[in-house]
Design goal:
Strand order of the largest sheet: 1-2-3-4-5-6-7-8-11
Strand content: 15-25%
Largest sheet: 9 strands, mixed
CATH architecture of the largest domain: 3-Layer(aba) Sandwich
Number of helices: 16
CATH class of the largest domain: Alpha Beta
Helix content: 40-55%
Distance between the termini: 21 Å
Number of domains: 2
Length: 379
Amino acid sequence: MANLFDYLKWRGDLSLEQTPINDIDSLILSRLSYLPFDGIVPPSCTDTITIAEAARDLLNRETLEDELIMKADLPFLHEVGASRRFANMRLCGYTNQVDPNAEKQFAALVIRVAPLYSYVSYRGTDLSLAGWKEDFNMSFCTPVPAQIDAVTYLNEVATTLRGRLFVGGHSKGGNLAVYAAAFAKPEVQERILFVHNHDGPGFDACVLESEGYRRISERIKTFIPQSSVVGMLLQHEEDYYVVHSTQIGLMQHDLFSWEVDRDQFVYLDEVDEHSRFVDHTLKTWLTQVSPEQREQFVDALFSILEETNASSLKELTANWHKNAIIVLKSIRSMDDEMRHNISQALRLLFEAAKQTVRGSIQRNAPKPKFLQQRRPQKK
């Protein structure tokens, strides 16, 4: 089954003049913001570097493999840097901020696709615990710091960039792309051609009902794999498209597993039972647990993890045996009220799952609006 690497071989030699930008190109450009271009891609948009040059410089970095979030990013970097379609696109505006005290993780860059077209790419969650804490904070807080930064970033780079804008991201990056487009200045919104959310979580009602979101909503497309978990979180109003992934369960969030057919994704009619189960369970849980309880639960969970002194998932798992002992000791030493709050939240989550198993989702029941989008017609 074909994936992004096959697309780069099939279409990598075709310029944008020969075949215009498509949904798979958008996924590739959204992945570029995950690469650790610190010190390589200029932070401003007045200076630029080609993808080929940036790839060469990054591949020469001795610590590269330790810095990559996914192993597949290494061959991806090779392929994109050597591709005629992408090699001469220019990168600029790189920013990468992780602030544990502010519970913020934000990174983005701009790809100058053509002289009058630019793609604003937002990075999803990296391996930092600060980034994961911020993701959890989305369940009870809007906006989180990265969403505020995403709006500021889009407005600022737009003042330097000429022409039309594409905005996109994967995972939390997709959420940031939609949020930034919804709350950007009206004159910036007018320049946006499309916003692509690749399996990123949704929003609460205050965002979906905002004037800015309504202005941009028809230009938003969300792509999720058939067993999506991350992309089904919170609420969506925009069109969505189900992409076939060759992975199973949560691993389908890996965009390198998404199947392609020439210059489009392989689409399915709807998400599978697993995705609907998770969607229903989490939404049931969120209605039973107040925002204050969610905040207490998240704070307690990450305060336990902080006891390990790990700042990233890599550090946490590298010393898992030692850290597991620390975590267990931290739980035992918690006061009665905090233990009760965590136990209560987990009990409600398990109860929501049991309700779903008992048949609260009927196969023939009307689907929520977000689950009524059909696969796009082939051109």
